[in-house]
Amino acid sequence: MDTAAVLTLLQDVAAEVINPRFRALADEQVSEKNPGDLVTVADHESEALITAALNAAYPDAVVLGEEAMAADASLLDAFAAADHGFTVDPVDGTKNFVNGSPDHAVMVSEVVAGEITRGWIWQPQHENAYVAERGAGAWLNGERLNVTTGTGAPFRTARRQWVGRGLGDLGTLELTWACCGVDYPHLIAGDAAALVYSRSMPWDHLPGALILTEAGGAIGRHDGGPLVPQRLEGGIVAAPDKATYDAAVAALPV
Fold first, then answer.
1. Which of 145, 166, 184 lies at the terminal end of a domain, its last residue?
2. Spatial distance between the Cα atoms of 136 and 220, rounded to a whole number of angstroms
3. Is the pLDDT of residue 254 over 60?
4. Has 204 been labeled as part of a binding site?
5. DSSP characters for 197-237?
6. Residue 89, annotated ligand binder?
7. Which terminal residue of the chain has fewer beta carbons within 10 Å of its beta carbon, N or C?
């Protein structure tokens, strides 16, 4: 599938099974995987459709879906060992989706030989399509995307326990938009000085990581090392440039 076809897949799936449930979920269509970790019928149905299409187009690739991993944790190991894989986050920001917030997204990334090669973020309520190909730039609704710097925006974290903590001399951490598929685009737009995450699940971060770096930004681990798709533990810092990333890493731990 070419890059445009994968984007169309995400848009079609969202139109079919996600958008009709937005602000219309019945109680029995929402459950918890773990306390506070919500999943909906839209998550399950959209992941199944996206995974089936990717499997049909790439039968030798490992497709790592968030909900499939929740049912079978060994899928993480298979993805980490694969030469070719995809990540699928069928409804990123599920809690936002359940609460009626438009800040949710459908995300896919492709990994080949240990490198993120393509990434897609579709925000169905905002109708924003973010797409990147390694070495070919990042795009928003067909327009070239470049990171915005120097806006004076706050440093943000997705870990609620860290909100309000100081990040050295850089300021006080504020909350992100609680959805990686919204956080990374806001960072690129200059609405955050950097993003600090305590976890690095690949379906959450690989699409945004490629879009960010292809737009001119920087991303890496808390220890200053590179983001490695197959390394599944540890935290991430994403920033509009390398200097800001280095400053944020130096100010950790928070």
1. 145
2. 20
3. no
4. yes
5. ES---HHHHHHHHHHHHHTT-EEEETTSPPP-TT--SS-EE
6. yes
7. N
